[in-house]
Amino acid sequence: MKWPDNNNPLPTDPLWGAGVRGGIKWDGTFYRDATRYPAGGSLFWSAYFKPGSAPGIKLGYWFNFGSGWSHLANDDPAQILTGASQRIYWDSTTGRWSLVIEATMFVTYAVVNVWTGQKPAGNDPVGNYTRIAGCDPLALLTVEAM
User: Fold this and answer.
1) For the sheet containing 62-65, what is the strand order?
2) What are phi and psi of 130, to 5 degrees?
3) Residues 113, 32: Cα–Cα separation, whole Å
């Protein structure tokens, strides 16, 4: 994923803050893993599914990005929708692709919607997503195949 606005952070930018000790820097990449999260099916990708990611400090279930961070709830992929996560998925109710970026509040561990957008129908999640919710006002994000 690339941020098209110079006023927003790129995956290669340094952290604005220290992040969390257990976190690794999120590079904007999403992965599919039907073994760890079968409920998502073949049209669900998440940053947490990087091959080799696992529970524990610096192993991929805690992410630092921008001035925020996110944590996979209880280090359990089955709870991916419970804690903060970054995900792309086909939403069969709306007939659109959805891109969700969430963060975890430091003290309360509450989930905060940083950015949510949708893309009209298509065969894959690549393309432009238009913002529909979230505290970041950026109007558009682009997902690219790597």
Assistant:
1) 24-25, 62-65, 68-71
2) -100, 135
3) 21
Residues forming beta bridges with residue 116, ordered by sequence position: 100, 133
Span 14-33, pLDDT tens digits: 444 445 666 777 888 899 99
Residue 13 clears pLDDT 60, i.e. is over it: no
Q: Where are the domains of the chain?
A: 24-143
Could you give the percent of the chain with pLDDT greater than 70? 84
Exposed, middle or buried: residue 126 (CB in 10 Å: 0-12, 13-18, 19+)? middle
Q: Would the CA dihedral through 118, 3, 53, 63 be positive or negative?
A: negative
Query: Which helix (DSSP H) or strand (DSSP E) does residue 93 occupy?
Result: none
Give yes or no for a contact between 103 and 69, defined as CB atoms under 8 angstroms apart. yes
Q: Which among 54, 46, 119, 121 is positioned nearest to 83, based on CA atoms?
A: 46
| CA–CA separation, 49 and 34 (whole Å) | 9
* CA pair distance 145, 2, nearest whole angstrom: 11
Residue with tokens 């992965």: 31
